[in-house]
Amino acid sequence: MNKLASELNKTLGSAAGFLSPVGKRMYFPYGGILGQGAEAKSCDINATIGMAFEEDGSPLVMDCFKRNIGLDKKAFLYAGSFGLPALREAWRKMEYVKNPSLKGKTFSCPVVTNALTHGLRVCAELFAGPRDELVIPDLYWDNYELIFKEVVGCKVRKFNTFSNGAFDAGALKAALFAPGEKKLLILNFPNNPTGYTATNEDVPKIVAAVKAAAEAGKRVVVLLDDAYFGLVYEKGVHAESLFAEFSDLDERVLAVKLDGTTKEDYVWGLRVGFVSFAFKGATPAQLKALEAKAAGDVRSSISNSSSLGQNLSVAAYADPEYGRQKREKYNVLKRRYMEIRRILARHAEYAESFAAMPFNSGYFMCVKPIGVEAEAVRRLLIDRYSTGTIVLSGLIRLAFSTIPKDKLGRLFANVDAAIRDLKGETK
Predict the structure, then answer these.
(1) How far apart are CA 75 and CA 115, in angstroms?
(2) Strand positions, DSSP E, 28-110
(3) Residue 158: what pLDDT?
(4) Percent of the chain residues topping a pLDDT of 70
């Protein structure tokens, strides 16, 4: 049991007897991303937040969403546990546009969830249990463990994320071949926390690892966390979801695509997500059955997702300005990414303080401090340099999505200075 859960149970004392096994395992991750972010709230440079801001510090929001607040009264009605039919169909059509490799492939109509986190919870309840094993890279979003391990009691097996600057498909394969008949695999590209997306060279190796496990008799549920889909900044990086590769890979492989408006459309507070299903040989009736299972789970927990958020999305997708505005916001983030590349290229001396982990996409990048503990660096950055960062798995995560381009140089200079301070060095 997690230490935080044990402490809460101890505080409850005899009242802990009211809790179910899941209730006893549940905790709020005060010391995780949310807790570290709270400590950095007042910092001048706050690289902790998983949202995106304009250069002037205002939320990076498209007008086609913002101007539609005056919606028709229908936005106040229930949306239904499956979600608004118009939104489900619009999102499904866009999936084919964003992922040309899906042409000719069959997948379910997406079921609307209360953003991607809720979609993961739905999948945990539908597919995971105490006898199953979740396979994740060792650089991962901490909410995976809270959902799969603490809520449904699923075992967790971690594998090495990188090898020689590329995704470690060999470690993934070894994890899939570990004892156990069924595996749930989460692939998160662009990855949180590292900002890495599988390259065109990585993808065939990843797919081959899953196929080998299936052919060896394993049943594999591949959960594709596509929260940051589309935010790829380099050539040679796989620009589509891996849903296309896994949708008809093998009868023993279930592909589940989890995505949403949150990061793709820069509307974090709308809480509109989607879950879609596919497997080789799936019939329309089988896909509808999976949709019904997911919708049933939605109904049993929240009844239905926000009608307001769904209606705003339908209106935005019909707006002729949607595509142009989305490209504008993407370019804000890409310019910051390219500036980081320039900063690291100009300052070879930073390699004495930290190693930049592989990154090519998304909201974040990570550095590994050399010779000092990451948590010590994080605290000193707050106390001495008014700079907020997140520590995960011994790495320092930097959210460039929130930092104006002209402050990025100071962000990295501060990280370098804090590490040198801890090592007793001066430049």
Answers:
(1) 18
(2) 45-46
(3) 98
(4) 96
DSSP 8-state code for residue 151: I
Contact 48, 33 (CB under 8 A): yes
Give the DSSP H/E element, type plus range, for residue 147. none
Residue whose tokens read 């994320």: 161
In this structure, the dihedral spanned by the alpha carbons of residues 175, 178, 181 and 184, taken in order and rounded to 10 degrees, is: -20
Instruction: Please tell me the number of Cα atoms within 13 Å of 281 on its side-chain side.
Output: 4
The answer to whether residue 15 scores a pLDDT higher than 70 is no
Q: One-letter amino acid identity for 402?
A: T
Distance of alpha carbon 210 from alpha carbon 205, whole angstroms: 9
Other Cβ atoms less than 10 A from the Cβ of 199: the count is: 18
* Residue recorded with tokens 């507070």: 269
Single-letter amino acid, residue 126: L
pLDDT digits (tens, 9 = 90+) for 302-321: 989 999 899 999 999 999 99
Q: With DSSP H G I counted as helix, E B as strand and the rest as coil, what are the percentages for the chain, rounded to 5?
A: 45, 15, 35
CB 36 within 8 A of CB 390: yes
SS3 237: strand
What is the number of other CB atoms lying within 10 angstroms of the CB of residue 28?
12
Q: What is the token pair recorded at 116? A: 């991607």
Whole-structure pTM value: 0.89
Quickly count: other Cβ atoms within 10 Å of residue 318's Cβ: 12
Strand partners, 323: none
Q: Is the Cβ–Cβ distance between 251 and 281 less than 8 Å?
A: yes
